[in-house]
Amino acid sequence: MITFVKEFKKQATRLTGDLRHRSLIQTALKKYEVIRGAKQAKFQDWQVARQAAAETKWEAINHLDKYLLEFSQKLEARGTHVHWATTPEQARNIILKIVRDKKARSIIKSKAMTAEEIHLNGALEQAGFEVVESDLGEYIVQLRHEAPYHIVFPAMHLSRGEISDLFQRELGSAPTDNPEELTMIARRALRNKYITADVGITGTNFAIAETGMVSITENEGNARLTAALPKTMISLLGIEKVLPRLEDLALFLPMLATAGAGQAITGYNTMYGGPRQPGECDGPEEFHVVLLDNKRTFLLADAEQRDALHCIRCGACLNVCPIYRNVGGHTYGTTYQGPIGSVITPHLRGLQDWKHLSNASSLCGACTETCPVKINLHHHLLQNRRNAVSQQPVWWEKLAFKGFAFLVNRPWLYDLGKKLGRIGQVFHPIVKGTVFDPARNWTRTRELPELAPQSFHELWKERK
Amino acid sequence: MKVTLFIPCFVDACYPKVGLSMVQILEKLGHTIDFPDEIACCGQPAFNSGYWDEARAVALPVLKRLRDSEKIVIASGSCGAMLKVFYKELFEKTEYAQEARDLSEKCHEFTDFLVNVLGVTDLGARFPHKVTMHDGCHGLRELKTGKLPPRKLLANVRDLDLIEMEEAETCCGFGGTFAAKFPMISTAMGDVKCASALETHADYIVSNDSSCLMHLQGLIDRQGKPVRTIHIAEILNS
Fold first, then answer.
1. Is the dihedral of CA A349, A352, A356, A357 positive or negative?
2. I need a surface site. Which of A133, A231, A338, A346 has the fewest CB within 10 A?
3. Which site among A446, A454, A455 would you substitute to test the B interface, given the most B Cβ atoms closer than 10 Å to its Cβ?
4. Angle at the Cα of A397 (from B179 to B101), degrees rounded to 5?
5. Model confidence over A141-174: pLDDT tens digits?
6. Which residues make beta-bridge pairs with A207?
7. Interval A130-146: pLDDT, tens
8. Structural domains of chain B sorted by starting position, each given as residue range(s) with its CATH number in brackets
9. Are B148 and B217 contacting, i.e. CB atoms less than 8 angstroms apart?
């Protein structure tokens, strides 16, 4: 428990001190903000669209039993194998069994945060399979043996120079800082992998119950190749990805593109409804869909925070979060970073171990304001704090707040406190900034405000 | 009108002039001030830290004392959000739920009260300086008073030059206990804010929330930055 919070503070200290890193992230995300704003303006009414999206997700999540069943039955009717996994281990074993049955050697994979969540690549590699990430950003972080820095922009923390250095080292390419050339280097390395891969693994952006289809959104065409070329396709998704109707995509596809990347619509939007049907000329021979719970049903049971399952993983809350902008994605130490990660990680991985993420917020509410499906993110952080305390209060904090309540409820004591404070203030410089300074967490970087010679209470009394 | 003025603990102890300015402005407009001097705090520090029982112990006397108030003006967006928004959550499913909802209806942040309740935008003030506005998060996003009320008031201050900064709506990094629990993040956020304010070459960062200004002034004093902070009430009373 202590390790997670210690590591978070250590990384936060390191990265807030790294001005180059902060400037890189802030510049990129400010650019995002501008183009996203322009695309939001193309909606007839972005706020009405948010409300409609929130209501659609509410409908889906509050009738998950019905829609998941419909989704799986429609898929199975066209010959898809649908698997249900309660735990990450079950999901890994299901996928391992499929690739073993297929006697696969190499696997190509497109972007899937759910796969990160269950540590799929590690499990496959340990079992002797080669897994190659085909999304450019994911490919870059895979070559660096790193977790994605951001749920949508996995390699946004790297400059072109750093990517060029990486490619030179890992792929033996010539140095360049031209983005197109860098893309071509990765593309050449990846093309061969698509052709030789026996199994393609994808994530899923939306699961359409009405038609039994998996909707995948991407900008590079890599997910299409991942799905189309290998003989076996596996799509992994969390159970919250369901949308009731096909027409819901008319709202959700542009919304995801706008909120996620400031695009009117993502480059490629594809739907998969099953393996290759008789008479069709392409598509995988076998199609597996793995539905993952991994404690999402616990979140479903929490009426207060159930709307966290509305999340479409657009990353908008990360992009506007001043915490994320200053500590970056890796500091969180979670699959899902930023505000949504701070909300759901305690539910997925344990409240006491991950409550520090809910405390590491100024509660500014920029996340809630931007969330396209209107998740009450920063209020959920408050609820996580409350739940953590009622489950296991920190004794000295409890004592301090009891003392605080005792003090402020007694005007004479509160007045005395202010008077003592004024005396203490005179002697404070002696200990300021040292380990003996009770306000050292403040005074290391900031000056304390001075207590006024007379408080408002005192001035008011005089006035009367 | 009889206006109940809620003075938060840090305004009381550190910035009494902000409170006095509000009193003078409201009296000048012909209103009577009711100041509940037995109240010291709204309970937000305990609430935000997850200690809701202790927060309720502080909030309940506030709720009871303000029961009969006609209109309540709160000298901070943050404490305003506590009274107006979070008391409803704090007292949900208790016998005080309805009272918390009734209280919420009567609560206004200072600039919101002037502009949207009293319909006043010109107080005849003069302040010959360049200023830039910081929108406190709680006022902006919890109370949803928007960016307009303080700006409408500033627009009518003689000789005042308002230059907007790029990061006007970005959090200053204070966040109550957050500033002490995660000082490195809080300070970095404050630095971003100060840098944006400095780009405008303003003499003052003005806000309707003293808690944000307390944080920013702390950073400015330590780093010797060429800008000062001031609460909007002090400008409107000049």
1. positive
2. A231
3. A446
4. 80
5. 999 999 999 999 999 999 999 999 999 999 999 9
6. A214, A242
7. 999 999 999 999 999 99
8. 2-117 (3.40.50), 130-236 (3.40.50)
9. no
